[in-house]
Specification:
Length: 97
């Protein structure tokens, strides 16, 4: 197997809530697993941290800007969608619409 096949096979393990993953509830009520993190950005000398959620493409591909996810009882709005192209999508999130 190549690395792409290995990654796709291991996504359930990567996003398992007993390891690195956390659960998120989509507006449809569907519960999915993913990883939350705060990537650092330094644009034009201004430091910025923003919340991001990485999950499986199969779970997140129907989302559009403005959709919501609830994580740990907090509602977040999707403000950015980045297809990582190896079976995962990165969502940039905000607490405000």
């Amino acid at each position: 197997m190549g690395i792409r096949a290995d990654i796709l096979t291991d996504l359930d393990t990567i996003f398992d809530i007993n390891d690195f993953g956390e659960q998120a509830t989509l507006a449809t009520g569907t519960i999915i697993n993913g990883i939350i993190y705060e990537p650092f950005d330094d644009a034009f000398g201004v430091e910025n941290y923003s919340l991001a959620f990485i999950g499986k493409t199969s779970d997140l591909s129907a989302l559009v800007h403005g959709n919501t996810l609830v994580i740990n009882a907090v509602t977040y709005y999707v403000i950015g969608i980045e297809n990582i192209r190896i079976g995962m999508i990165l969502l940039k999130l905000s607490k405000t619409a």
